[in-house]
């Protein structure tokens, strides 16, 4: 089980509840954005040594917080990925000890349910902490952006809104207070309640054999999307097929694939750049 917590925040669970009713119609498009920057002092503290992995990690690699909720909402897997990255002058100033100086890696996927999805790695953009949006042919639902905390917002076309629904927009509260004692435990766990649920899901698996959504195959598919997303960035957005790791033949094809942007403890062994060639901001 991959302990990815963002799909299980209170806001995202409310989005998922709405989506699973079928109220959005056929899912067409989803987007996830995870933003988490820091000062030079904070980032240096988190990068202890010249060959620590954080100093060399491409922008597409930290993908699960943005991609995971979209997979969960849609109950689907990524099939193909195309990606682009862009520089950050602020991060570039730290290049003597943090070599992955791109500010954003944006991935675009075709999913197994037929929808398309756009999502980030961990970005350094000046923006809200995180945001998610799922669009169907009947309605859409989203959280983050300019929507109040502990709220999700649903939107209909004028011609698709339900009978009796006066406005095209409706907000839903996602606070834990309605859940009583359980809500207090969820609220105390952190990450909007997500930390509570990943522990509970792990207990459900160990004690009752309930297979978690983020099993080994979904976890490796997410990793492959991050890795191939970076290769797509290096190839100006080239489209890459995500291997189906449930298929022994696809697994066999990956056995000798050891390209990596990470050097070893002696600074050797990296076979890919960890950032795009620098282009001066003009």
Strand order of the largest sheet: 8-7-6-5-1-4-3-2-9
Largest pleated sheet? 9 strands, mixed
What is the SS-derived class? alpha+beta
Succession of helices and strands = HEHHEHEEEEEEHHHEH
N-C termini distance: 46 Å
- Percent of residues in helices comes to 25-40%
* Annotated CATH architecture of the domain at 7-148 and 212-254: 2-Layer Sandwich
Main attributes of the structure:
single chain, 282 residues, alpha+beta, Dihydrodipicolinate Reductase, domain 2, 9-stranded mixed β-sheet, 8 helices, globular
What does this structure look like?
There is one protein chain. With 282 residues, this protein is α+β, with helices and mostly antiparallel strands. The chain has a domain at 7-148 and 212-254: 2-Layer Sandwich (Dihydrodipicolinate Reductase, domain 2). Helix content is 29%, strand content 22%. The chain has eight helices and nine strands. The chain has helices at residues 10-20, 40-45, 64-74, 89-92, 180-189, 194-208, 216-234, 248-254; strands at 27-35, 78-87, 102-111, 116-123, 130-136, 139-143, 151-156, 169-173, 240-241. It has a nine-stranded mixed sheet with strand order 8-7-6-5-1-4-3-2-9. α1 runs parallel beside α3 and α5 (180-189) packs across α6. The chain is globular and about 65 Å long. It starts with 9 loop residues before the first helix and ends in a 28-residue tail after the last helix.
What does the secondary structure layout of this molecule look like, with pairings?
Elements: H1 10-20, E1 27-35, H2 40-45, H3 64-74, E2 78-87, H4 89-92, E3 102-111, E4 116-123, E5 130-136, E6 139-143, E7 151-156, E8 169-173, H5 180-189, H6 194-208, H7 216-234, E9 240-241, H8 248-254
Parallel strand pairs: 1-4
Antiparallel strand pairs: 1-5, 2-3, 2-9, 3-4, 5-6, 6-7, 7-8
Helix pairs in contact: 1-3, 5-6
